[in-house]
């Protein structure tokens, strides 16, 4: 069941990416969500706080369009 839900989420993210026409970074709070997206997806998945930490460390705003993963 978990694999089925994870695959459905990856499919939804792929559809959003194709509509957006630009690469975006996937953000997910839960450990299992990040693991499933990493296993089934085609790109890196980070916790949202990592994005904040990068900004606070470098002072550079994030590039691309971070998108939250729904799960």
Secondary-structure element string: HEHEHE
Count up the domains: 1
Rounded to the nearest angstrom, the radius of gyration is 13 Å
In the predicted model, the low-confidence regions spanning at least 5 consecutive residues are none
Please provide a written account of the structure.
It is a single chain. With 71 residues, the chain is mainly α. The protein has one domain. It has 3 helices and 3 strands. It has helices at residues 2-20, 31-40, 48-58, and strands spanning 26-27, 45-46, 67-68. The chain has a 3-stranded parallel beta sheet with strand order 2-1-3. The longest helix is centred in the first third of the chain and has 19 residues, at 2-20. 15% of the residues are buried. The mean pLDDT is 76.
Which key features would you list for this structure?
three-stranded parallel beta sheet, 3 helices, flat, mainly alpha, 8% strand, 71 residues, 56% helix
In short, what is this structure?
This protein has helices at 2-20, 31-40, 48-58; strands spanning 26-27, 45-46, 67-68. With 71 residues, the chain is mainly alpha-helical.
Write the layout of secondary structure elements.
Layout: H1 2-20, E1 26-27, H2 31-40, E2 45-46, H3 48-58, E3 67-68
Parallel strand pairs: 1-2, 1-3
